[in-house]
Amino acid sequence: MDKKLKIMVIQGPNINMLGAREPGIYGAMKMEDIHGQMKIVADQNDIDIEFFQSNLEGEIVDKIQECLGDADGIIINPAAYTHTSIAIRDALSAVSLPVIEVHISNIHRREDFRHKSLIAPVSAGQIVGFGPVGYHLAMIGMLQIFEQVKAIRAANQQQQ
């Protein structure tokens, strides 16, 4: 029996403050509620899911590195580190896993310094501006990526 696929969800600084932090921008939903909804989707699709949140750049880099050999894909909201962290970008690149970048607000409609993502070039895709439902869209995207990976593996096994 094949091992279950696993998604690592990594939340950056201040995401733990959802529901209290600037609800006009980020909405009223708490991080735990978003994670609960993601877990339902994962369970429905027989996928393991793990959640991690840190306000510290180095802890996020460590968690990304731990994904190597443990996770099959990463959904990440690097929050403010999106625009500043070469270290997180390099860690994502190093583990060579599918990555989907999520932002609750539309970073392209906000301050100029938020328009540039250092993470986007090493991501399969970026979902911005859909509020908490962006995490659900990321789950759908990751499930699609997993299906493509399975199809490629199956085709390669048939050729051998």
TrEMBL record:
Protein's UniProt keywords contain Chloroplast: no
Pathway it works in: Metabolic intermediate biosynthesis; chorismate biosynthesis; chorismate from D-erythrose 4-phosphate and phosphoenolpyruvate: step 3/7
Example GO BP: amino acid biosynthetic process
EC number per UniProt: 4.2.1.10
GO molecular function terms attached to this record: 3-dehydroquinate dehydratase activity
Catalytic reaction list: 3-dehydroquinate = 3-dehydroshikimate + H2O
Active-site annotation: 26, 103
InterPro entries (UniProt xref): DHquinase_II (IPR001874), DHquinase_II_CS (IPR018509), DHquinase_II_sf (IPR036441)
Coiled coil: none
Alphabetized PANTHER family for the sequence: CATABOLIC 3-DEHYDROQUINASE
Name of the molecule in the record: 3-dehydroquinate dehydratase
Organism: Campylobacter californiensis
Protein encoded by which gene: aroQ
